[in-house]
Automatic annotation (TrEMBL):
Domain (ABC transporter) ranges: 4-236
UniProt KW Repeat keyword: no
GO cellular component: ATP-binding cassette (ABC) transporter complex, substrate-binding subunit-containing
Signal peptide: none
Full protein name: ABC-type sugar transport system ATPase subunit
Length: 366
């Protein structure tokens, strides 16, 4: 396996800037997820790494060796696209075996057979080996396409939304499978996704990309606990982090309309500065009955704005003046609540994130 790195990648298509100074490093054996919304530049980054797109500027390094001029087939990288191209005239076995029959590898038939069967077993398609690929479901086709990548000996695997077309249950089991495979085999993987759950559960490190720029690279814990800006903060978690505009005072934060007041952790901004705070629904608690807040918690009074049942849990949105804060509570615990009821929320200042104002307001809580 190999370390891969991109430095200062830029790529434009006419007036569209696909990559705007993209840099990151993936260590040997590391699982790196590139997470971002549609059009962020994820596929372009992967194709540039693979050598299928030539950057306008910047460098691709494989094991510290500048590789921009190395032909795609000689980079030793195996890439899987979301659109899974299979040979329609071949069965599953033939599709899995064909990459190994390339002159690049020249493996003996017995070795090809062993590899095909091992990968098919791992992906749960060993019962389909003789089936023509034209008679597979989309989910099965996607597993064959992933198998065609994993069967190849490679210095690193580049995977573009490889689980996108699987139903939720298979996706979860394949996710676990992929994690085990990459950990056990020590594979270097660059994995593209727009699904934050996938990124948090698979990655050793995550690069959050938007508009062709990497906003933050870090471990799942780092990007979750210390998002560098408001966009990254909202990229993780469902319900999303609530953001509220206002300003700093001597005592903490006050919302724009002066109704919501909460203490905040240490900040690199001064009283009077306009900021926004971010609070994750899971960091809030609904105060039920006359419960005392407890050490470290502050109570904020409001009214129920809307209740949304999510199975056994309920998302309660509470209006505190003009601000709306979401909290998730067990459904049974909020059974008696209705819109407009008075409620209190409990907030722990240590879990309040403070950002400069705006969509990509930078983190100011330290
Ligand atoms: N060959 C191309 N010609 C013109 N524009 C392109 C081309 N490839 C990508 N783009 C543009 O570059 C930007 C980044 O595209 P890219 O496919 O890398 O995004 P992405 O993050 O992979 O998105 P998605 O999740 O939707 O696949 C987009 O605005 C896209 O329209």
């Amino acid at each position: 396996m190999a370390a891969v790195e991109v430095r200062g990648l830029r790529k434009s298509y006419g007036k569209t800037t696909a990559l705007d100074d993209v840099s990151f490093e993936v260590a040997d054996g590391e699982f790196f997820c590139l997470l971002g919304p549609s059009g962020a530049g994820k596929t372009t980054t992967l194709k540039t790494l693979a050598g299928l797109v030539e950057p306008d500027a910047g460098e691709v390094l494989i094991d510290q060796t500048p590789s921009n001029d190395v032909e795609p087939t000689h980079r030793g990288l195996a890439m899987c696209f979301e659109s899974y191209a299979l040979y329609p005239q071949l069965d599953v076995y033939g599709n899995l075996a064909s990459p190994l029959r390339s002159p690049l590898f020249r493996l003996p038939a017995s070795e090809v057979d062993a590899k095909v069967r091992a990968v098919a077993g791992m992906l749960g398609i060993d019962g389909l080996l003789e089936r023509p690929v034209t008679r597979l479901s989309n989910g099965q086709r996607q597993r064959v396409a992933l198998g065609r990548v994993l069967v190849r000996p490679a210095r690193a695997y580049l995977l573009d939304e490889p689980l996108a077309h699987l139903d939720a249950k298979i996706r979860a089991s394949m996710r676990a499978e992929l994690k085990t495979i990459s950990r056990d085999a020590g594979t270097t993987t660059v994995y593209v996704t727009h699904d934050y759950v996938e990124a948090l559960s698979l990655a050793d490190r995550i690069g959050v990309i938007r508009d062709g720029r990497i906003l933050q690279s870090g471990t799942p814990e780092e990007v979750w606990a210390r998002p560098v800006d408001a966009f990254v903060a909202q990229a993780f978690g469902k319900p999303r982090m609530t953001l509220i505009e206002g300003g700093l005072t001597e005592d903490g934060f006050v919302s724009g309309d002066g109704v919501l007041r909460v203490p905040v952790p240490a900040v690199s901004a001064a009283p009077g500065d306009a900021v926004q705070i971010g609070v994750r629904p899971r960091d809030l608690r609904l105060r039920l009955g006359a419960e005392e807040p407890g050490a470290g918690w502050t109570a904020v009074d409001g009214r129920v704005y809307v209740l949304e049942h999510l199975g056994r849990a309920t998302e309660v949105t509470v209006a505190v003046g003009d601000a709306r804060l979401s909290v998730v509570a067990p459904r049974a615990a909020v059974a008696g609540l209705a819109a407009d009821d008075r409620v209190s929320l409990l907030i722990r200042p240590s879990t309040v994130h403070v950002f400069a104002t705006g969509d990509e307001g930078k983190r100011v809580s330290t």
